[in-house]
Amino acid sequence: MKARKLGILGIGLLIAAGCHEATATASSTLTSPPSTPAPFATPPVLAGTPDVATLVARVKPAVVNITTTHAVKLTRGPMQLPFGFGFGGPGGDESGPQGMPREGTLEEKALGTGVLIDAAGHVLTNAHVVDGADEVRVRLSDDRELEAKVKGRDTRMDLAVLELENAKNLPAPASLGASNALRVGDYVVAIGNPFGLGNTVTMGIVSAKGRAIGAGPYDDFIQTDASINPGNSGGPLFDLHGQVVGINTAINPAGKGIGFAIPIDAAKDVIPQLLAKGHVDRGRLGVEVQPVDEPLAHALGLDRARGALVATVQDGSPAKAAGLREGDLIVAVDQTPIDREQDLPREVARHAPGSHVKVHVLRDGKPQAFDVSLAALGDTEAAGTPQSPSVQGSSGSQPLGITTSQADNGVLIERVEVGGPADGRLAAGDVIVEADHAAVRTPADLAAKAKVATRAHPLLLKVLHGDATRFVAIVPR
Fold first, then answer.
1. Which of 131, 154, 158, 328 is catalytic?
2. How many structural domains comprise the chain?
3. Residue 382: which residues within 8 A CB-CB, separation 6 or more?
């Protein structure tokens, strides 16, 4: 099994069988009573310090350890076991342990964590914990081990629901809280199965919210410094009330004390669908958007950087049918503001296919609203084939620090001056098709637009980068 980007807790090599990662965190509102210290004694614990021991005793029974088994194909050659533990001497001796085949399959085990969410025996965990599993077994806090089947999976959000078989006399399920109510600095507690060390408890605080780590279109992670390690994947993150506020999912392997959890509010949106039909249906708007940085905000006449700028409207999409255009700035869906481009896919995905939503945009600085009937989000989106522009002539655009030539569909960038205004914003091979919402067909058209741009009103360019469209704002020198 492959570890996911940013150290998503899918595999650990520190156990011969392998380990998925995940964690859980918890805190309690109970406090230790202050005591009167003797002279020169250690100062008393401050009133208000969480009584983590009492909290853990209450919530730990709902946390389970997960073991998955995967078949690993062996091929003829020097004897190798999973994760590179090999047999044989320097001369390539292929004699392995007694009875060990050189071809066939071996069983590879991996570890993870989960949490009971109802009395029927359903367990919430990460999808990557059970990816490709041939067998899933769950160990309860009382050491009973039960078989489980995957009831539903949502790979986009990396969540899965398991169903325990022959589930009787189960511990009380965990209570699902409200991650939206979490504050940066709040205590959280993780309980999990790191490196196979079941029922490990770690404590920390919420370091940040709304983190995007490149794991997918719905990045919105809780960052915590509660220790998370391989085997913690899918485990619960508890707040001070003993409620689950997140599902531990990823770590940054380059740092310590940096872990990420899926907010439980997002999980609660998909759990009913996973239980009912085993998958999640999401709405699709049919646009590709980009972030708005400070230069773009100035070019668009905004008081601050906000919204999701439409770079591409897909042919045949709901957005196209409703009348959205490239260059529209989406600022809200229904009554929910869109402050960052990451907010848009999450908000649209909360609606089922066929739902009608009101998309609010700024077009040329003026507010407009479009009624959109969402389509179903497919597993993949078709990608076009980049076209190589035919070019003729060559000239420079000194105010922008680029060398350009004329192309069939606009102005081709041949070179970007190092340290110039366009450095890091444009690249050789890009084709500029619009400047300040007007088509540019020649380098002279572009130069004329660049001459009237200022620091207060940067030049807004519509650029083709391969088969993708994006907008760039540049302050000419």
1. 158
2. 2
3. none
